[in-house]
Amino acid sequence: MDVAQGYIEFTNKRLTRSGIYDNVHLQIAEATKLPFKDGKFDVLINCFMMDLIDTPEIPKVLSEFKRVVRTHGKVVIATMAIPEGKQSLLSRIMRRSYLLFIKNIYGNWGCRPILTEPFMKEVGFSNIQREYIGSFTWFPKEIVWAGKT
Questions:
Q1: Whole-model pTM?
Q2: SS3 labels along 56-93
Q3: What is the dihedral of CA 57, 82, 119, 41, to 10 degrees?
């Protein structure tokens, strides 16, 4: 799924070249209004989209993810993370330059590091777990997974 037709077309071309086009269904949709029935999926995986969502919208998106995952299903989110621990000077300079650039282009939202776990708690996910993946020169990543009870 994507909100942009161009990305759907790009992905369809790659799937065709890979020979797996017939096994994948792509469609346009908004994360706050998923076109699926309640409890449709066992697992929902979302990679590097939450850090593009306007902060007040994140709980709405996660609530929608929770709606389409079955009871005892899982939601897995990968995002740019807020750095933890000591950071190298190069890393701090690169991150600050990037954030300044993004803020000047997109304002208060855009691809920026976030912490997903507090939002998942707010929405009512259970058994929330987080793995932090540090980076010497760029933004660290986090993978957060949780269950629906």
A1: 0.80
A2: HHHHHHHHHHHHHEEEEEEEEEEEECCCCCCCCHHHHH
A3: 90
How far apart, in whole angstroms, are the C-alpha atoms of residue 99 and residue 35?
33
Q: What is the pLDDT of residues 20-38, one digit of tens each?
A: 988 888 999 999 999 999 9
Cα distance between residue 26 and residue 12, in whole Å: 8
Q: Is the dihedral of CA 13, 14, 20, 23 positive or negative?
A: negative
Domain residue ranges in the chain: 1-30, 37-147
What phi and psi values does residue 50 have, to the nearest 5 degrees?
-60, -30
Q: What are the angstrom distances between the C-alpha of 113 and each of 1, 43, 45, 79, 142?
A: 22, 24, 18, 7, 10
User: Per the structure block, which two tokens stand in for 63?
Assistant: 């609530």
Residue in 67, 64, 49 with CA at minimum distance from that of residue 116: 49
pLDDT digits 0-9 by tens, 39-48: 999 999 999 8
Does domain 37-147 correspond to CATH entry 3.10.270.10? no
